[in-house]
Amino acid sequence: MSIPNSISVNEEYKGIIEYKSDFDSITTSFTDTTNFKTPYIYIYEPQENDIDLKNLIIRDSIKLWSNKIDINNIRFTKKGTYYFLAKIKDEIMLFSYKKNNEIDSIRVLSNEYFITQKIHVKD
Hints:
Layout: E1 6-8, E2 13-18, E3 35-37, E4 40-44, E5 47-48, E6 58-63, E7 68-74, E8 80-97, E9 103-122
Parallel strand pairs: 1-9
Antiparallel strand pairs: 2-7, 3-8, 4-6, 4-8, 5-8, 8-9
């Protein structure tokens, strides 16, 4: 993840998250209709001082179309120590077909990856 770990109050920053999916060994395509990937990223409100998993508030959720995610509008209005938090929910649906091309079964595999970064906000 490339998000600055020290930023200034009221300045806007951008970052990039790149992840490697465990399902890339099945397909790296985001448009494959036989092995259909449906990854999402959930970006949470930053937490001040400590991470409290019981009180996470989702700020945004985005369907991913690549393993590279641009994060825009990173801004803090007061100084302190914060944690940037995100979760990638990576799913793939594996379709199995009968000889007549009808769907026989669908198997869904799912992984979750949590991403955190401590950010110091200064004047």
